[in-house]
Amino acid sequence: MKLAEALILRADCQKRVEQLRQRLAKSAQIQEGEMPPENPQTLLAELETAVSELTGLIQRINRTNSQTELEAGIIISDALARRDTLVLKRSVYESLMRAASHSQNRYSRTEIKVLSTVNVAEIQSQIDRMARDYRELDTQIQAANWNTELLD
Predict the structure, then answer these.
(1) φ and ψ at 99, to 5 degrees?
(2) How far is Cα 6 from Cα 149, in angstroms, rounded to an integer?
(3) What Pfam families does UniProt report for this protein, alphabetically (predicted)?
(4) CB–CB of 97/67 below 8 Å?
(5) What pLDDT is attached to residue 106?
(6) How far are the Cα atoms of 12, 33, 47, 88, 147 from residue 40, in angstroms, in the given order?
C-alpha cells in the first residue's frame, strides 16, 4: 500500500470515529420506558475497533514519514513540519497585513491620523513567497506520498 492510500484510510477512520461519537451521544440518554436509537455497547465496540485501526495506521504513517527521504537529507517528517509552520507563519503575516491596511476615515483635521507601521506591499510580497514555497513543498510531499510504500 502506498503512503497516500494510508493517508486516505486514516482520514476515513477519523471520520468514522467522529460519526461514532455523534451516534453514541444520541444513544447516551433516553426517556424512561423508551429504547435508545442504537445499542451503546455495540457502538463502543465499533469505536474500539476503529480506534485500534486508526492507531495502527498512524503508527505506520509516522514510521514511514520518519524513514523516507523527500530529497537528499530531508525526511518527509521534517518537510511536513516545515509545511505546517509555513501555513502558520503565512496566517500571521496575513493578519498583520489586514490590520495594517485597515483604513480609518477622518472627518476633520483635528481627528487623530492613524498610520501603518509596516510596509503593506512588502508584507504582501512575503505572503506571496510563502504561498509559493508552500505549494512547491506540498507538491513534493504529495508526489512522495504516491511513490512511497507504507512501512510495517
Answers:
(1) -65, -40
(2) 10
(3) DUF6847
(4) no
(5) 65
(6) 21, 16, 10, 39, 41
CA 43 centroid distance within chain = 27
Contacts (Cβ under 8 Å, ≥6 apart) of 20? 43, 46, 47, 50
What are the residue ranges of helices labelled H in the chain? 3-27, 40-67, 76-101, 120-147
Closest among 63, 85, 40 to 151, alpha carbons compared: 63
Judge whether 115 and 103 are in contact, CB under 8 Å.
no
Query: How many CA atoms lie less than 13 Å away from 72 in the CB half-sphere?
Result: 0
Q: How distant is the alpha carbon of residue 59 from its chain centre?
A: 18
pLDDT digits over 77-101, tens only? Answer: 999 999 999 999 999 999 999 988 8
Sign of CA pseudo-dihedral 10, 16, 22, 24: negative
Nine-digit cell string for 3: 503512503
pTM over 0.90: no
